[in-house]
């Protein structure tokens, strides 16, 4: 079969690699992809927001399946257009993708169906927002209602941070902002394959590292590293997460006629009252996809087809721990320079590229999160050691990374 992946980052590189390993797959294409994917797929130079050209390409080349990686094309309705053209698409329709595209939409659904999450208030004007923070105090979590590439969340530990976030988020006219109670606890990421009222949750979770700097300091980013499995979060907590969050939210989406077909990412936190939802995403997490797909032994295409048929499938995992460390451009998630030379990368399978391109025979940086080094081992200590060895093999004066990825698990 022929499979088309949409996206150009590390998550999509991981998807391309995993799909290309399937015995069911003859050819893999990727739009727009990046040059690091060229050995594993045919890279097609069409913009991700050019939906008409993507649909035409998929039709002309008789794609058997399209897998949409990033959130923006999903929220903009790419899956709707592909499905309407008769092309099987793994990725939710635009209405269902509001689970990620609108924090207010997701919180309202959770409130309606009593799914455990932080108490919240949605506010659409700055003066009321300032008054709300004055009344409720800090710490408080402030979330821009729409998409912000992983940077629309501020955990304001003091009033100054809260006021800065309010000034930033309400700079755009008509902005809606969600204010949530601050939850204490350990966070984890659970991926769920969903087809309307049917789902298969991963039985391995990952732990992401959102803050830019060591010891969870600095601004929120799209993710600076991840590891799996997360052995210090118990099977009981995962079971409760499925019973109290996953299965109820899948039924809630079914009741709301969202007709969800794709990945539902559950960002959860273990509180004193049990697991609660921090956020939902309408796609694989990044960098969680990179570590989870590296550890998953089950054929991803067979898994997607089982979900499509609403049939259970046993998930098989390699008996290894995976630790992934992100190398990002200095200055990220704020402003940063592109074009720094990167040495030491030559398509090795232990690296996944997010923002690398070839220029004059050299690799140079082309974005914020540039690549991830994937170390594996018989336990987390060994996987962590191997991942940082891989990091040291990359030479560039334009990159930085956290030095504590996986420490919580140790």
Distance between the termini: 42 Å
Number of helical stretches of at least 4 residues? 12
The proportion of strand residues reads: 25-35%
Largest sheet: 6 strands, antiparallel
How confident is the prediction overall: mean pLDDT? 96
- What is the global morphology? globular
The poorly predicted ranges are none
Query: Which structural class matches the secondary elements?
Result: alpha+beta
The share of residues in helices is 25-40%
Number of strands: 24
In short, what is this structure?
The protein is α+β, with helices and mostly antiparallel strands.
Structural commentary:
- The chain has about 400 residues and is of the alpha+beta class.
- The protein is about 30% helix and about 30% strand.
- Strands 12, 15, 18, 20, 23 and 24 form a six-stranded antiparallel beta sheet that branches. A five-stranded parallel beta sheet has the order 3-2-1-4-5, sandwiched between helices. A four-stranded antiparallel beta sheet has the order 6-9-7-8, with helices on both faces.
- β13 (about 210-215) and β14 (about 215-220) form a beta hairpin.
- The longest helix is centred in the middle third of the chain and has 21 residues, at about 235-255.
- The chain is globular, with a radius of gyration of 20 Å.
- The mean pLDDT is about 95.
Describe the structure using short key phrases.
about 400 residues, alpha+beta, 6-stranded antiparallel beta sheet, 5-stranded parallel beta sheet, globular
Lay out the secondary structure.
Elements: E1 2-7, H1 10-20, E2 27-32, E3 42-44, H2 51-60, E4 65-68, H3 71-75, H4 78-84, E5 89-90, H5 98-101, H6 103-112, E6 120-123, H7 126-136, E7 140-144, E8 153-156, H8 159-169, E9 177-181, E10 186-195, E11 198-201, E12 207-208, E13 211-213, E14 217-220, E15 225-228, H9 235-255, E16 261-271, E17 274-281, H10 288-295, H11 300-308, E18 321-329, E19 341-342, E20 351-353, E21 356-359, E22 362-365, E23 369-377, H12 380-392, E24 399-400
Parallel strand pairs: 1-2, 1-4, 2-3, 4-5
Antiparallel strand pairs: 6-9, 7-8, 7-9, 10-11, 10-16, 12-15, 13-14, 15-18, 16-17, 18-23, 18-24, 19-22, 20-23, 21-22
Helix pairs in contact: 1-10, 7-8
């Amino acid at each position: 079969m022929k499979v088309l992946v949409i996206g150009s980052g590390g998550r999509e590189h991981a998807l391309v690699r995993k799909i290309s390993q399937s015995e069911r797959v003859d050819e893999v294409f990727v739009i727009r992809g990046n040059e690091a994917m060229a050995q594993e797929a045919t890279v097609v130079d069409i913009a991700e927001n050019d939906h008409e050209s993507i649909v035409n390409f998929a039709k002309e080349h008789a794609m058997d399946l399209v897998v949409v990686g990033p959130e923006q094309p999903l929220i903009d309705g790419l899956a709707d257009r592909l499905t309407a053209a008769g092309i099987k698409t793994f990725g939710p329709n635009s209405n269902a993708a509001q689970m990620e595209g609108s924090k207010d939409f997701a919180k309202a659904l959770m409130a309606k169906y009593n799914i455990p999450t932080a108490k919240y208030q949605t506010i659409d004007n700055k003066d009321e927002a300032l008054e709300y923070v004055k009344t409720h105090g800090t710490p408080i979590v402030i979330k821009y209602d729409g998409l912000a590439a992983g940077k629309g969340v501020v955990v304001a530990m003091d009033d100054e941070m809260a006021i800065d976030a309010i000034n930033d988020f309400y700079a755009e006219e008509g902005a809606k902002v969600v204010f949530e109670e601050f939850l204490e606890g350990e966070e984890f990421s659970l991926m769920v394959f969903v087809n309307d009222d049917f789902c298969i949750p991963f039985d391995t979770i990952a732990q992401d590292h959102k803050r830019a700097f060591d010891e969870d300091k600095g601004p929120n980013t799209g993710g600076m590293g991840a590891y799996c499995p997360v052995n210090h979060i118990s099977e009981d907590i995962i079971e409760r997460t499925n019973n109290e969050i996953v299965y109820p939210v899948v039924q809630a989406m079914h009741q709301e006629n969202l007709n969800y077909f794709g990945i539902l990412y559950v960002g959860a936190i273990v509180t004193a009252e049990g697991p609660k939802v921090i956020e939902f995403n309408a796609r694989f997490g990044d960098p969680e996809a990179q570590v989870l797909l590296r550890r998953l032994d089950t054929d991803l295409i067979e898994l997607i087809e089982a979900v499509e048929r609403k049939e259970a499938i046993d998930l098989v995992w390699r008996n290894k721990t995976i630790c992934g460390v992100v190398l990002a451009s200095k200055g990220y998630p704020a402003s940063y320079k592109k074009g720094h030379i990167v040495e030491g990368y030559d398509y090795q399978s232990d690296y996944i590229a997010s923002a690398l391109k070839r220029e004059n025979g050299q690799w140079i940086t082309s974005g914020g999160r540039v690549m991830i080094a994937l170390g594996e081992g018989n336990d987390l200590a060994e996987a962590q050691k191997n991942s940082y060895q891989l990091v040291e093999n990359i030479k560039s004066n334009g990159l930085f990374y956290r030095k504590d990825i996986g420490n919580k698990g140790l």
